Amino acid sequence: MTKLLRISVWATVGFILAFLGALLLATGLDRADKLSSVLGALAGLAGVILSAYGIVLTRQGISASGGYRQTVDSTQVGGSVIQATQVRGGIRLGGVHASPPRAASSLEVDGRAGDAIANQEVRRSQVTGHIAQVRDLTGDVDIER
User: Fold this and answer.
1) Residue 144 in contact with residue 93, Cβ under 8 Å?
2) Angle 30-34-35 (CA atoms, 0-180°, nearest 5)?
3) What is the share, in percent, of the chain residues with pLDDT greater than 70?
């Protein structure tokens, strides 16, 4: 979420709360009490529904940022493993010296939802060089060898 969007959301929420406060103030104490009880119950219900939805997404393996994955699993890598996602601007890959092959631990980076074809996976492999997985980039990728 960008800073401008975050500020806009909080400003809108603040405006709505101020409007509701003024509305309740204008209606009188007894009626305001009844209305605020109903509004509180609706807000609580919405919270329970959103929590249940979040639990369902978590159990399905979909994170809040989405569902695609960058994965290196059960792989011997002779160089480095670079995973980049949602980069704003360009990146430069390179200048890394190779080291002896080693078993890579399971690495995962969550990304956006939905499409299994969008996954970037290296599994049960032996790689003598480097692995670079780059996704959702707004600039250029400069690769040095």
Assistant:
1) yes
2) 115
3) 76
DSSP character at residue 97: P
Cα gap 78→116, rounded to integer Å: 27
Asked if 94 contacts 109 with a C-beta cutoff of 8 angstroms, the reply is no
**Model pTM?**
0.40
Listed by start position, the domains of the chain span: 3-59, 69-143
Q: Is-contact 68 114, C-beta < 8 A?
A: yes
Q: Which residue has the higher pLDDT, 115 or 7?
A: 7
| Residue pLDDT, tens place only, 72-116 | 888 888 877 877 777 788 888 776 544 444 444 444 444 444 444
What is the Cα–Cα distance from 77 to 57, expressed in whole angstroms?
A: 32
**Burial zone of 3 (CB within 10 Å; 0-12 exposed, 13-18 middle, 19+ buried):** exposed
**Reduced to 3 states, what is the DSSP secondary structure of residue 63?**
strand
- In whole angstroms, give the CA distance from residue 23 to residue 9: 21
Structure-token match 């929420």, residue found: 13
